[in-house]
Automatic annotation (TrEMBL), chain A:
It is found in: Cell membrane. InterPro entries: MetI-like (IPR000515), MetI-like_sf (IPR035906), PhnE/PtxC (IPR005769). The lineage of its organism: Bacteria, Bacillati, Bacillota, Bacilli, Lactobacillales. This is Phosphonate ABC transporter, permease protein PhnE. Residues 76-259 form the ABC transmembrane type-1 domain. CDD domains: TM_PBP2.
TrEMBL record, chain B:
InterPro entries: AAA+_ATPase, ABC_transporter-like_ATP-bd, ABC_transporter-like_CS, ABC_transpr_PhnC, MetN_ABC_transporter-like, P-loop_NTPase. Keywords: ATP-binding, Cell membrane, Membrane, Nucleotide-binding, Phosphonate transport, Translocase, Transport. GO terms for molecular function: ATP binding. It comes from the Bacteria. This is Phosphonate ABC transporter ATP-binding protein. Gene3D superfamilies: P-loop containing nucleotide triphosphate hydrolases (3.40.50.300). Pfam families: ABC_tran. It comes from Lactiplantibacillus nangangensis. Coiled coil: none annotated. Transmembrane segments: none annotated. Residues 2-246 form the ABC transporter domain.
Amino acid sequence: MKAKYSSPQQFFRQRRMRLTVVLVILLLIYFGSVLLVNFNTFSSLAQIPAGLVWLFKTFIPNQHTTTYLGPIFYQLWRTLIVSISSTICAALLSLIFAVLGAKTTSPNRVLQLTVRFGASLLRNIPVVAWAMILLFSFKQSDFTGFLALFFMTLGYLTRAFTETIEDLDTEKLHALQAVGANYFQCVFCGVLPEAASTMTSWVLYMIENNIRDATLVGILTGTGIGFLFNQYFKSIRYDAAGLIVLLIAALVIVLELTSTQIRRAIA
Amino acid sequence: MLKVNQLDKTYGQDKHSLKSVSFTAQPGEVTAIIGPSGAGKTTILRSVNQLIRDDGGQILLDDQDIRQANKAELRKIRHHIGMIFQNYNLISPLTALENVLHGRLGAKSTLAGMFGLYSTAEKTEALALLTEVGLKDYAYQRCDQLSGGQQQRVGIARALMQHPKMILCDEPIASLDPKSTKIVMDILRQLAREKQLIILINLHQIDIAMDYADHIVGINDGAIVFEGPTEQVNEAVLQKIYRQSADAKVKVAANES
């Protein structure tokens, strides 16, 4: 764009004006939608403190809650295992798909498009929908949860790995070709070592992400920590449900810290 | 001996192309291709090992035409042509030693190459080559922890691991400081002399070309405008090579000073 400004003052005046216009438009959209849904900003805001107080009173675990720790830890453990195993299985398959689907390493254009389309399809079906669809074929079991997480992770990681491979410097692959390396040697000796650390980061991120999603999936498939949460919640044992929420958060934080350490160790 | 005959290349619509390029490069000599940016230096160099597919002509290395080779033959020919690059193009998370061993990939079976199964003899040779280029102490360092000059020397060791007849050097010193430049160029000249290799270098530093090359190929806009021994390069020749190019005057001026 080659706009002509007579002076710097005029340039900044125009820029300020554009900003003002954008702000006005945003405000109009807000008030428009508030009118549409009959949402009252101020009375809603006023309700927040009372709501929070109720939340804390009922969901804070008390002394009695500790009796639930046994089953909670057992289900938390199962959920962790399902999340990790589904992520790792999906990662191995994604690796193959990504090599076939990345522009720089794809042996064939049809294959490349198929992989990309397939991955985007898997990725864009929400994990909840996956769980509900699979529920019909595989009933309420850990395996259904595993599959739901697996398919979504497969879509995500294939996409992430594909982009990781495409971001690599193709010149490095040319260097291996120049040595006389064939396709498989280029992939194994060049692409994979170069992409390994980024890919590991993605896998660790997906494990964290899948723990969170596993909770939701569990509610639907009747397994794992999600099922337990749902059960306690519906039987008004809010303190136990609250404990589960706290423990899931703690688990995810511990995983995050661990994966930061792992990432640092392999970088 | 490398003999390039009437090489042609067009990129889509009349972008940088080669127009019937012919020249020779002798074993034991350093041959430098010089010319303005975008004249086609890289295209020529990369046609020689067919990283870039040209449109027509002949590339004879010891009377074998690389352009006629099928996939398996091409792999075998490439195995004996080393190549080093401006950006070194090492696999950076791997150690110097592993990168040197990659020089054997062209000679190994697919599986042995994929999983890095190298013999003791190969590992010993790789270490010896690293010692030869002065990097014995860095053999187990990741390549991204090495300096530019050191990485380029790993690149040279990788090329030597191929037992090459010829080493192609694509702007090998463009990213190096003067001290590393001297080390790398000294090694390349020494290789030409002692191992009777064909050393073919793309350069845009005329002074380096004049100091190190035995034979100069001058190219302008995809066509050879000069080929001959370095002694024959004079002001008139340089004017011809760098004529009508934006950086010509700067280059010539730099050379005079």
